[in-house]
Amino acid sequence: MGNYPAKVKSSWGHYWDEYVAEKEAAPEFEKGPTFDPNFGFDVPRKERVMVATQEEMEAANLRLHERDYCAHHGVAYRKCMANNMPWYWKCKHFKHEWMECEYEDAVMRIKEYERERRLKKRELQLQGKDPNGKPLDTKATERFST
Amino acid sequence: MATALLRSVRRVTASPSLSSSVIFCRHAGGGHWNPDWRADPKVPETEEERIRAAKKYNLLPDDYKPYPEDSLNARGDYPDLPIISGSQRDPYEPFDYPELRRNYGEPLHIDFDMYTAERVDQKRLRKSMLYSWSMFLGVMTAGFLALYSTRNFAGHVPTLPKQYPYNDLWVEKGGNPAKMPIRKNYSFELEGSEPAPKHHHAH
């Protein structure tokens, strides 16, 4: 999972959902999104924009887990450090930009998880099952489908 | 044995005939440097050697008993003395060193530093053995059960995997460029919309 920004705190509620309350609807957290990314959106979603090229990342000697959508911040930070060493604090702005970007990236991952969870729940409901995979009572299904 | 030994020690250090015991007391040839204070690695064999070693350690020859040479606990010619921890010694006795509860020239147990009054007391237990063992086993068992009962539950943050560009870093991860799959990642912004404002945090 690579470097995880410390600002994103772990929560405990999802354990209850995953292992007790909504076992069937729990997303497989080690796999990517399984649904059509544009499902449910009137307007298609923007593709994520990658700024740094592969050559830049290679030249900056970024580690594998750092070659993500925030890599251009990492490249800028490394460049600044190379130019300003040993006055490393001159690069704090670059570092904070980088960390901020990683934070946004992590929030996006949480949103993807939540989207996956809700879509799985919806699919189960359409099959007439509750989030634990047991058959729903028909009234609830009717109410949902109309 | 222990009290008899102490008595013999006291006799050596406090008897009038040896009132010059301060001078009498010399160790391993009167060393001035750490190796000089070491015990002789050779265990005395002849009676003459035994007497010499006993004298070196301020012991009566009858009380002198070295550690067995072929054991893991071999200590050369250092005497195998009974453990009398600081807490077991009389606090009102006028020791030469009251804080250590020992006298000058007194033969010391080889782990003497462990048995000073504030450290280990080999006779008195703060808690009973039953209490200590049940506490130890109880904590260990509870910890093991906590781990074992949750072995099938993965601990993780509620996120999907991190997204990587360039088809999930296919080339960087060692994939064949000719067989590169297309993998796209999407943001939560919609086509034609302004970029959402960033989160702001107090630094």
Automatic annotation (TrEMBL), chain A:
Q: What does this protein do?
A: Accessory subunit of the mitochondrial membrane respiratory chain NADH dehydrogenase (Complex I), that is believed not to be involved in catalysis. Complex I functions in the transfer of electrons from NADH to the respiratory chain. The immediate electron acceptor for the enzyme is believed to be ubiquinone.
Which family does the similarity line name?
A: Belongs to the complex I NDUFB7 subunit family.
Q: What is its main location?
A: mitochondrion
**Protein name (Swiss-Prot/TrEMBL):** NADH dehydrogenase [ubiquinone] 1 beta subcomplex subunit 7
Membrane topology type, per the record?
Peripheral membrane protein
- Can you name the source organism? Ramazzottius varieornatus (Water bear)
Q: Name one Pfam family in it.
A: NDUF_B7
| Cellular component annotations (GO), alphabetically ordered | mitochondrial inner membrane; mitochondrial intermembrane space
Keywords noted in UniProt: Disulfide bond, Electron transport, Membrane, Mitochondrion, Mitochondrion inner membrane, Respiratory chain, Transport
Q: Where in the cell is it found?
A: Mitochondrion inner membrane; Mitochondrion intermembrane space
Q: Which domain of life is it from?
A: Eukaryota
Segments for region (Disordered): 122-146
* Basic and acidic residues bias (residue ranges): 136-146
InterPro entries listed in its UniProt record: NDUB7
**Endpoints of the signal sequence:** none
Automatic annotation (TrEMBL), chain B:
GO CC, one annotated term: mitochondrion
What's one Pfam family the UniProt record gives for this protein? NDUF_B8
* Record bears the keyword Translocase: no
Q: Enumerate the UniProt keywords alphabetically.
A: Membrane, Transmembrane, Transmembrane helix
Protein transport as UniProt keyword = no
Question: Which residue ranges traverse the bilayer?
Answer: 129-148
Q: What's the superkingdom here?
A: Eukaryota
Q: Which PANTHER family match?
A: NADH DEHYDROGENASE [UBIQUINONE] 1 BETA SUBCOMPLEX SUBUNIT 8, MITOCHONDRIAL (PTHR12840:SF1), NADH-UBIQUINONE OXIDOREDUCTASE ASHI SUBUNIT (PTHR12840)
Which protein, by its recorded name, is this?
Answer: NADH dehydrogenase [ubiquinone] 1 beta subcomplex subunit 8, mitochondrial
User: What is the species of this protein?
Assistant: Ramazzottius varieornatus
Source taxonomy: Eukaryota, Metazoa, Ecdysozoa, Tardigrada, Eutardigrada
Q: Which gene encodes it?
A: RvY_14006-1
